Amino acid sequence: MRLKLRKAQAEAGDIVLLYGDESEALTHPYLARAWGTRGAELRGAGLAIAADARAALLPLLGGDRRASRSEVRKLALYARGKETVELDDVLAAVADASALVIDGVIDAAFAGRTAEVAVQFAKARAAGTPPGRLVTTALARVGELHRGRLAIEAGTPFGAVAEEIAPRTQFRRRPATEAALKAWTASRLERVMAELAAAALDSRRLSGSAAALAEPVVSRVLMMIAISARRKS
């Protein structure tokens, strides 16, 4: 059965998707079909695509075939002159990729990846993401993690909680989710909630000519979260 699956994947054009550990390759039927059709735009342009870039691109290809082909064609044009489409190309060229950039900032912060926070925050701002949206997303994330930590501290298995917050299909976010659940306790996350709420209020107050001041406010609170996650206390 596994050999037949691999053969079918190869015939469809290398559509193996990696979830979590690279030794475990799984394929979602819809994503396989999507790559078999939409991916032809890149292959026709003589472009290869990196595994992480493909993994990020496929969930962004919705049910509208015409719109999806337009996005992939735009990506091919953006990457013209290169041999391989990289993750940064997808983030820069695909319309719905802004959510991936935001997730990158927030995931890095709660996982304690301080250097990555700075890089991803700069990407988010370069993509035009408002600071207030980053805070709103961080508040939603801390709520998820807080519920997860309460469940773990009440005896729910770690793996079950991680699966609920970041299912295996969200394989790009799974490592950061697991790192965050290990780094934080419910009580420490409650303090982060208060700090994020204050930052959200500050960013809303900074409007008009003072709007530029919201950026350092949000950057500082996200970096503070990352530093706190590394301390684990």
Task: Supply the key terms.
233 residues, mainly alpha, Helicase, Ruva Protein, domain 3, Zinc Finger, Delta Prime, domain 3, 2 domains, two-stranded antiparallel sheet, 13 helices, 3% strand
Give a summary of the structure in a few sentences.
The protein is mainly α and 233 residues long. 69% of the residues lie in helices and 3% in strands. It folds into 2 domains: 2-93, Helicase, Ruva Protein, domain 3 (Orthogonal Bundle); 98-231, Zinc Finger, Delta Prime, domain 3 (Up-down Bundle).
The general outline is globular
Radius of gyration: 20 Å
Element string (H = helix, E = strand):
HEEHHEHHEHHHHHHHH
Could you tell me the number of beta strands?
Answer: 4
Helical segment tally? Answer: 13
Mean pLDDT: 77
Query: Which structural class is indicated by helix and strand composition?
Result: mainly alpha
Number of domains: 2
CATH class of the largest domain: Mainly Alpha
Q: How big a fraction of the residues is strand?
A: under 5%
Helix residue percentage: 55-70%
Oligomer: single chain
Biggest sheet details: 2 strands, antiparallel
